[in-house]
Write a structure and sequence with these properties.
mainly alpha; 8% strand
Length: 247
């Protein structure tokens, strides 16, 4: 199901990207932003922000639409409320979407979300409304899975879809991955050196074992020859003789 959701996201992004490329006027592009941020199945917006066509909104009376798109990519309902005077008014579908995105943001930092925190962040007045939202708009849509704990008054998150990474988060992730890669390279080199040492030790052990076995065989042969040299044979009173093969 996760793969289906990702595929659907990619299809929608491609669809809106193609539409944006075909538009030229700021009003049309602003309307496209409205459509994208209202779409019930789209939860990723950072790729749309990079579209050259949308840069045409900059410096126009519709520039706030670009700011709103950026908020949907990285922000929350709380962020919108703190700057609502500089942004377009939200339609009901956009408000619902921003609440869903806010739940995803909260789930990134902790897997146990208290009802009181959720009601404050989502601007919800009571528990019944909150639980209905979590069930109908979050769990049924597939963006989160979890358990509603009415006794402890919290939502236990088992899975949450990821949000767009901010530029700072992306930079930190790249640095973390680079550090991990460097550590992995060092570890691999260390392992290879250990394998090389083990191989060398094994060859030396085989050589010593072979030398030891050769000495044992030589010793056995020496003992046998010594025994033969001491044996004498007498036939009918004739003088005995000894066979000395030690040389």
């Amino acid at each position: 199901m996760a793969m289906d959701a990702e595929r659907r996201q990619a299809e929608l992004i491609e669809q809106f990207s193609a539409q944006a490329a075909a538009l030229s006027s700021a009003p049309q592009l602003a309307a496209l932003v409205l459509e994208a941020t209202s779409h019930p199945a789209l939860f990723a917006f950072s790729e749309l922000l990079t579209l050259p066509a949308l840069s045409k909104l900059t410096g126009t009376q519709y520039a706030s639409s670009l700011d709103l798109l950026r908020l949907f990519a990285y922000g929350t309902l709380k962020d919108y409320k703190s700057n609502s005077s500089a942004l377009p008014a939200l339609l009901p579908d956009q408000a619902r979407k921003l609440k869903q995105l806010s739940v995803l943001t909260l789930a990134e930092s902790t897997k146990v979300l208290p009802y009181d925190q959720l009601m404050q962040e989502l601007d919800v007045s009571n528990v019944r409304e909150l639980e209905d939202f979590l069930i109908n708009e979050c769990m049924y849509s597939g963006i989160v899975r979890g358990k509603l704990d009415q006794l402890r008054r919290c939502f236990e998150v088992q899975f949450a879809a990821g949000r767009d990474l901010t530029p700072d988060q992306l930079t930190n992730m790249i640095e973390t991955l680079s550090d991990w890669l460097g550590t992995s390279d060092n570890l691999l080199h260390h392992i290879q050196e250990k394998i090389k040492w083990a191989d060398t030790t094994s060859e030396l052990n085989k050589k010593h074992q072979k030398e030891f076995e050769d000495r044992v065989e030589e010793a056995k042969k020496s003992v046998k020859l010594n025994n033969v040299s001491r044996q004498t044979m007498t036939y009918g009173g004739m003088t005995t003789f000894s066979l000395n093969l030690e040389e």
